[in-house]
Amino acid sequence: MKSALITGSGKKRVGWHIAQALAGRGYRLGIHYRSSEKEALDTCDDFKRRGIEAVPFQADLADESAVRAMIAGFLERFGEIDVLVNAAAIWERKPLEAVTASDVRRHFDANALGTFLCCQHAGLAMVKQKEGGCIVNIGDWAEVRPYLDYAAYCPSKGAVSTMTRSLAVELGTRNPNVRVNCILPGPVMLPPDLPEEERREAINATLVKREGSPEHVALAALHFVENDFVTGVCLPVDGGRSIYAP
């Protein structure tokens, strides 16, 4: 039975929905969290009640020793790591005048460095496996058309696309069965407190004229996991927003 580690999957956000999709394919799950212990334990309990093996893993992903320990713990529990999904992220809205160096470092630590360390240590473990493995990163469509007031967040997510291509080469040349891809979500989980006018603007800026859902991202993740002839790809799942400028 295959196993998958999904970062940032304790809370009911995109990672949680991807975990649900992988569970439906029979995967054993590692549910990562940083500080949301209760939510992660509740998520694991829910999976277990459904007969799905799910284990919580706590780690600050910007701490290399913590990432090493998490991957080692996962391998000790499941024996191998077939899929890694990097869904953990932070984002903070702040006008440029108020952005500090600390804000930028915090976003890069969580979104870029954390993704890199997980890819590096899980990927090198996959290299040693005959069947390799699949890594799916979560970027953001806004790397090409950045949102206003997210000057710390957008660059940290933009790094994920370049990282995906680089690590697809690094890992694939070591073991051709290791693949690395990236999803660039659009408006798939708008904040519940987003003003209605901004919500309408986001929806009208898509070609499909509707808000997406985390399930759309989960479907893209399953595509990358199951199509073994795709690697180094960054796929917008954005309703056409990245190509449309109304």
Topology:
Layout: E1 3-7, H1 14-24, E2 28-33, H2 37-49, E3 54-58, H3 64-78, E4 83-86, H4 101-127, E5 133-138, H5 153-172, E6 178-185, H6 196-204, H7 214-226, E7 234-237
Parallel strand pairs: 1-2, 1-4, 2-3, 4-5, 5-6, 6-7
Name some characteristics of this structure.
44% helix; 246 residues; globular; alpha/beta; 15% strand; 7-stranded parallel β-sheet
> What percent of residues are in strands?
15-25%
Terminal residue distance: 47 Å
Spatial arrangement of strands, main beta sheet? 3-2-1-4-5-6-7
Total of helices: 7
CATH class (first level) name: Alpha Beta
Specify the structural class.
alpha/beta
Order of helices and strands: EHEHEHEHEHEHHE
Number of domains: 1
Could you characterize what this model shows?
The protein has 246 residues and is of the alpha/beta class. Helices cover 44% and strands 15% of the residues. The protein is built from seven helices and seven strands; from the N terminus they run βαβαβαβαβαβααβ. α3 runs parallel beside α4. The chain is globular. The mean pLDDT is 96.
